[in-house]
Every structure is written in structure tokens, then in C-alpha cells.
Amino acid sequence: CEVGNGTYEAPVLEYPITDYNSVTGGYVYRGSRAPALRGYYVYAEFKFAPGPVWAWDRTALDPVTGLGVPVQIWSQVAISSFGEDAAGELYLLGYGTGKVYAIVPEPGAALLAAASLATLAALGRRRAR
Predict the structure, then answer these.
(1) Residue 14 and which of 5, 20, 42, 129 are 20 to 30 A apart at CA?
(2) For 35-84, what is each residue's pLDDT tens digit?
(3) Interatomic CA distance for residues 115 and 123, integer angstroms
(4) Alpha carbon distance 55, 105 (integer Å)
(5) Which helix (H) or strand (E) segment is 127 a member of?
């Protein structure tokens, strides 16, 4: 991209995509629900079928290229947009599903998953009893 002084800045993250329509930009995760994800930039590759949701830690660089190395964290739904609440929790809008998803830790696994808000609400009701 062009920087204000007319020079160009090289990309910080680059990888081949062949089967997707676009990259849907997200947010840096600052919430507390998934502590392993804090500081990671979360974004998705969009297509009209489930596409991957990626997390990228800007300190994780490929030693050969010097570019970022993203980690796939989910791929159940096509994601059309992201949102963030006041607590830094991330929400993903499912394309054509009518659902909003939240990033949550996957029990017993190092990676993360996403769950619909209805699922999270049901879990909260069960815990509150």
C-alpha cells in the first residue's frame, strides 16, 4: 500500500488463495473468553460455502520470507463480517445463516472454535442453575 510520502510498504502477511472470493478483515482479539487468542488478528476468507477463519500473531514470522504465518481456527460457515463488543470479544456474522457466532475456546483442544450465540446463551443458562 502507498504510504503518505509516496513510497510503498510491503505486505506483512501473504499466502496463496485460489478458491476464495475475498478476505474479510477482522479485529485483533482483546477479550478474555479465549486467552490463547489474545493479541491475534482474526480474519476470514470468504466464499459462498464454509471458508477458513484465520488467526495471526504478528510475532510469528516465517524465517525464510519474513511474512506472517496464520493459523486456521475454524471453517464451519462462510463469514461475511466481524464485530467486537466493549469487552474485546469477537463476533462473526454467518453469510446466509442468520446467525452471529462468538469465538470460544474448544474444550480440551489447543485450537479455538466458534459457537452460535444461541449455543452460548444455552450454556450460560445451564451454568447459572
Answers:
(1) 5
(2) 888 888 999 888 777 788 888 887 777 788 777 778 888 878 888 899 99
(3) 10
(4) 13
(5) helix 117-128
Decide: helix, strand or coil at residue 87.
coil
Q: What is the DSSP letter of 11?
A: P
H or E, element range at 118? helix 117-128
19 vs 84, 88, 125, 127, CA distance in Å? 28, 31, 40, 41
Beta-bridge partners for 43: 54
Specify the pTM: 0.72
- What is the distance between the alpha carbons of residues 10 and 29, in angstroms, rounded to a whole number? 24
